[in-house]
Specification:
The strands form five sheets. A seven-stranded mixed sheet has the order 15-16-17-14-13-18-19, sandwiched between helices. A six-stranded mixed sheet has the order 10-9-8-11-12-20, with helices on both faces. Strands 1-5-4 form a three-stranded mixed sheet, covered by helices on one side. The protein contains 14 helices and 21 strands. The protein is α/β, with parallel strands linked by helices. It folds into two domains: 274 residues, Aldehyde Dehydrogenase, Chain A, domain 1, CATH 3.40.605; 184 residues, Aldehyde Dehydrogenase, Chain A, domain 2, CATH 3.40.309.10. The chain binds ligand TXE. The site of ligand TXE has 27 residues, from helix 7, helix 8 and helix 11. Ligand TXE binds next to helix 7, helix 8 and helix 11.
Length: 495
């Protein structure tokens, strides 16, 4: 047996290893070394978790719990997460290498989703339908879907899980979670709090393992009613196709190639900070990364120079230290992918203004670092401007006027987010209308909230997370007809 910390799954309220007895090492991106292990599950473990969730949905106490009691459980979980936020954040940082400052702030914010959706749980209402038929009383009920599978990625494991878990539970579903094989530990640690909060056994279960094995087995399972997925667009398309074969409900939150647009009338200090936070925060590993910086030609040189100057001062280092500004890339394959894109951009003729490789500092040698990298004179037709890199790599693209900014911004298969920097409010409203993305930020970037719907246009996804509408993604409508009269007329004719 190894001497690494071991995190176990929870199935039907019980701690579980995998049937195979195999383990996956969780690697610390700052050292490149294993620090913990999680069970390597297979299709048999996936089936056991789904069956437990299905039992809890159909026969357990959860099925008859009032919506108000469900809401209380969610709010209790919120309080426990708030209590343990720092500890959970540290576990996430060991797994994903993002800054402790950022993960701790996220974990302190996560409880708000459980409070918000806990509050919504007993406000799910049906309606009485006016009837065009005599003596007929018709009403709707809003009912949960059943077993929901939540598949999450490695960049913000608990935040992105929360966006699924809170509305799914508030709506009365049961859940099987499949975290990323690279960053499972914080999700497994959260399960202790789910138990402490008092959720009945089987309501929330976890199965760790590789996507192609355990993820695909979950999507395939006939007792699963819905898949809520966040990840890459290629995997999202595969999950969507597989779910379609079984007519399952799906929400997909996929990647982006978001335009961050600076006009010449913008507050330049703010715009430069917005450009930096859009791409270098979290080492660019966010779906909302503002990876295409569109700059009006009249200020193109000035903005490029200022963004380069600020990015050049970024302190790379140990993500656990509060003074670090840019941490490592979460996984080695992802680091290699980012470096590959840098080579592609150079080959395409983009001008490398900063970075372009791995840092030389020997103190960083063990970690999967990539230097903050900026390319100038990028054409929107280049691969570096079209494909999601998911790393600290910025492409700067010039434009002449509003029309051209809109044209370039929308010339992408994605549509997750966008930023507009201008002091002209007429222009701000117009741009917000014309850009095809699920979120538009004006004079800010990277703002999210439990109150605000989030999701993608085009290939960035289907469905919305957060905000009131998110709960609809976990409900279905039943229509009930009650005949108040006696005597059925002609049985061969539809009423
Ligand atoms: O993601 P995957 P990867 C993008 C980013 C990154 C690329 C690949 O561009 O470079 O995706 O990252 C599970 N059936 N994003 O490979 O494969 C997998 O185990 C069911 C954007 O890490 O999408 C993990 O739990 N599940 C993104 C989850 O899917 C499967 C965040 C996501 O992994 C599966 C992360 C299958 N066949 C990466 N194959 C964002 N939108 O924020 C894999 N999985």
């Amino acid at each position: 047996m190894s001497n690494l910390a071991r995190f176990l799954n929870t199935v039907d309220g019980q701690p579980r290893e995998s049937y195979s007895g195999r383990w996956i090492a969780s690697l610390d991106p700052f050292t490149g070394k294993a620090w913990a292990e999680v069970p390597q599950c297979g299709a048999d473990d996936a089936a056991a978790a789904v069956e437990a969730a299905h039992r809890a949905f159909t026969r357990g106490p959860w099925a008859t719990l009032t919506a108000t009691a469900r809401g209380k459980l969610l709010r209790r979980l919120a309080d426990l997460i708030a209590r343990d936020a720092e500890k959970l954040a540290e576990t996430e940082v060991r797994d994903n290498g993002k800054l402790l400052a950022e993960m701790a702030a996220q974990l302190r914010y996560v409880p708000e989703w459980f409070h918000y959706f806990g509050g919504l749980a007993d406000k799910i209402e049906g309606g009485v339908i006016p009837s065009d038929k005599a003596d007929m009383f018709t009403y709707t009920r809003r009912e949960p879907l059943g077993v929901v599978v939540a598949i999450t990625p490695w960049n913000s494991p608990l935040l992105l899980l929360t966006w699924k878990l809170a509305p799914a539970l508030a709506a009365g579903n049961t859940v099987v979670i499949k975290p990323s094989e690279f960053t499972s530990c914080s999700t497994l640690a959260l399960m202790d709090l789910v138990k402490e909060a008092g959720f009945p056994d089987g309501v929330v279960n976890t199965v760790t393992g590789y996507g192609a094995e355990v993820g695909a087995a979950l999507v395939e399972h006939p007792l699963v009613a819905k898949v809520a997925f966040t990840g890459g667009d290629a995997t999202g398309a595969a999950v969507y196709a597989q779910a379609a074969r079984h007519i399952k409900h799906v929400t997909l939150e996929l990647g982006g190639k978001s335009p961050n647009i600076i006009f010449d009338d913008a507050n330049m200090d703010d715009a430069v900070k917005g450009a930096i936070s859009g791409i270098f925060a979290a080492s660019g590993q966010t779906c909302i990364a503002g990876s295409r910086l569109l700059v009006q030609r009249s200020v193109y040189e000035e903005v490029s120079q200022r963004v380069v100057a600020v990015a050049a001062t970024a302190r790379l280092g140990n993500p656990m230290e509060r003074t670090t500004q840019v941490g490592p890339i979460t996984t080695q394959p992802q680091r290699d992918k980012v470096l590959g894109f840098i080579d592609i951009a150079k080959g395409e003729g983009a001008r490398c203004l900063l970075g372009g490789g791995t840092p030389k500092d020997p103190a960083l040698a063990g970690g999967w670092f990539v230097e903050p990298t900026i390319f100038g004179d990028v054409l929107n037709t280049m691969r570096i401007a079209r494909e999601e890199v998911f790393g600290p790599v910025l492409s700067i693209i010039p434009f002449e006027d509003e029309d051209e900014a809109v044209e370039i911004a929308n010339d992408t298969i994605f549509g997750l987010a966008s930023g507009v920097w201008t002091k002209d409010m007429r222009r701000a409203f117009k741009m917000a209308e014309r850009i095809r993305s699920g979120t538009v930020w004006v004079n800010t970037y990277r703002a999210v909230s439990f109150l605000a719907p989030f999701g993608g246009f085009k290939k960035s996804g289907i469905g919305r997370e957060s905000g009131q509408a998110a709960i609809d993604e976990y409900l279905q409508t039943k229509c009930v007809w009650i005949n108040l009269a006696e005597g059925i007329p002609d049985p061969f004719i539809i009423r």
